[in-house]
Amino acid sequence: MRFHPGLLVTCSVLVLAYGSSRNLPIISFDEGYSQLFGDENLTVLKDGKSVHLSLDERTGSGFVSHDLYLLHGFFSASIKLPADYTAGVVVAFYMSNGDMYEKTHDELDFEFLGNIRGKDWRIQTNVYGNGSTSVGREERYGFWFDPSEDFHQYSILWTENQIM
């Protein structure tokens, strides 16, 4: 699958995001990202490299990378989903070039679908490429654990030959 140049990393709702490569420097949040929405629902933590995004009755929150990722990379977020009844809430960690290719964008993402108390949590992964959201793959999986009890690491490894 081929991708247009320039995917932006975007996170929204309750996410603690950071780089986790041992061999690459981790830049500060302000150097690498800008807040998209959510007013005071985004808090930069004391280390300056991590953020906490929250959700309230008005809005969630989100941020976007300053730079485009043109070839490959490793993108990771530590996410704890909101507990209790969350039907209609979607927590997303994704890469997209939709602002540059509005009608033919590419996308790699995790979408954590809201939950009804007592039901299993679900995650949807999406891979859209070749400049068309009709060319791609959506998959839904049930969690074997409760992702609202603790933070869990979710990552996208994008190499020259594959996406994991």
Description:
- This protein is mainly beta and 164 residues long.
- It has a single domain, classed as Jelly Rolls, CATH 2.60.120.200.
- It has one helix and twelve strands, in the order ββαββββββββββ.
- The strands form three sheets. A seven-stranded antiparallel β-sheet has the order 3-6-1-8-9-10-11.
- The two termini are 13 Å apart.
- The model is unreliable at 1-5 and 7-21 (pLDDT under 50).
- Residues 19-164 form the GH16 domain.
- Pfam families: Glyco_hydro_16.
- One of its GO terms (biological process) is carbohydrate metabolic process.
- GO terms for molecular function: hydrolase activity, hydrolyzing O-glycosyl compounds; transferase activity.
Which key phrases capture this entry?
hydrolase activity, hydrolyzing O-glycosyl compounds, Jelly Rolls, mainly beta, 1 helix, three-stranded antiparallel beta sheet, glycosidase
Short description:
The protein is mainly beta and 164 residues long. It contains one helix and twelve strands, in the order E-E-H-E-E-E-E-E-E-E-E-E-E.
Helix and strand layout, with pairings?
Layout: E1 8-12, E2 15-17, H1 29-32, E3 33-37, E4 42-44, E5 51-53, E6 62-65, E7 73-79, E8 90-96, E9 107-113, E10 122-128, E11 136-142, E12 152-158
Antiparallel strand pairs: 1-6, 1-8, 2-7, 3-6, 4-5, 7-12, 8-9, 9-10, 10-11
The end-to-end distance, rounded to whole angstroms, is 13 Å
Q: Mind telling me the CATH class? A: Mainly Beta
The Rg value, from CA coordinates, equals 16 Å
Shape: globular
Uncertain spans: 1-5, 7-21
Number of domains: 1
Number of helices: 1
